[in-house]
């Protein structure tokens, strides 16, 4: 599958490496591709990356993602599955930029022809592509209104090492706010643990 990733930071590079290793055709999208040589991954401009993508991943700072996507234009994104990993946080990680909503909902509203799926934003980039490196199975969440886009995303998660049993579809795109707002608790856990490399696991009651 042709996967475009907007951003060349920790998340974009990790996911590109993970999906490249699984055999996908990945392309990183940068505002300044000429300055992003030596990443060991192909890099292009943002528009070229969007045009390349069957699935496009937003891995840019959540505070600017909507503006960046708007600059690409709705026509460029129409029909493309958009996996949104972004979270809008203040520089000191204490305030959300979309406190009574979510970035993913706002992207979906702005781009109705682009099915948006929120996932992976509840963990560190190292855990995103190496769930097996943690001390036992954990949970990755999916939020989105489009069933087929969530199926596609689920397959791509499997390619990163997330078995179906670790994937939890929590509902429509409005549930993305739960994933994004978890960032505040994530930072607290990271402080308590002294590490960002952890994940949460949903532990249901045993079946009767
Ligand atoms: N790091 C994590 O473990 C983690 C975990 C969960 C969620 N997230 C979320 O995932 C997104 C990406 O995180 P990250 O850690 O990969 O961030 P990062 O290392 O700061 O990279 C963000 C990338 O976005 C691009 N970008 C586009 N517009 C930008 C702007 N106005 N200012 C700065 N960068 C801009 C930059 O690439 P170019 O300069 O090449 O254009 C930059 O490399 C964020 O929304 C973050 O909250 C991160």
UniProtKB/TrEMBL annotation:
Protein origin, superkingdom: Bacteria
Keyword set, alphabetical order: Oxidoreductase
Residue span, Pyrroline-5-carboxylate reductase catalytic N-terminal domain: 2-87
A Pfam family hit: F420_oxidored
PANTHER family: DUDULIN-RELATED
Official protein name in the record: Oxidoreductase
Organism: Streptomyces lomondensis
């Amino acid at each position: 599958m042709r996967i475009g990733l907007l951003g060349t930071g920790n998340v974009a590079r990790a996911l590109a490496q993970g999906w490249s290793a699984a055999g996908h055709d990945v392309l990183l999208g940068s505002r300044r591709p000429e300055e992003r040589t030596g990443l060991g991954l192909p890099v292009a401009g943002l528009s070229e990356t969007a045009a390349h993508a069957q699935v496009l991943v937003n891995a840019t700072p959540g505070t600017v993602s909507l503006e960046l996507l708007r600059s690409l234009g709705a026509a460029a994104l129409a029909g493309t599955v958009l996996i949104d990993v972004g979270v809008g946080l203040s520089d000191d990680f204490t305030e959300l930029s979309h406190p009574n909503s979510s970035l993913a909902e706002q992207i979906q509203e702005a781009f109705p022809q682009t099915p948006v799926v929120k996932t992976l934003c509840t963990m560190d980039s190292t855990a995103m592509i190496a769930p097996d490196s943690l001390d036992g199975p954990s949970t990755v969440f999916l939020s989105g209104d489009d069933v087929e886009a969530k199926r596609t995303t689920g397959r791509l998660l499997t390619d990163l090492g997330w078995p179906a049993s670790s994937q939890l579809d929590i509902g429509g795109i409005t549930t993305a706010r739960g994933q994004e707002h978890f960032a505040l608790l994530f930072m607290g856990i990271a402080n308590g643990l002294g590490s960002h490399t952890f994940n949460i696991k949903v532990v249901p009651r045993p079946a009767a």
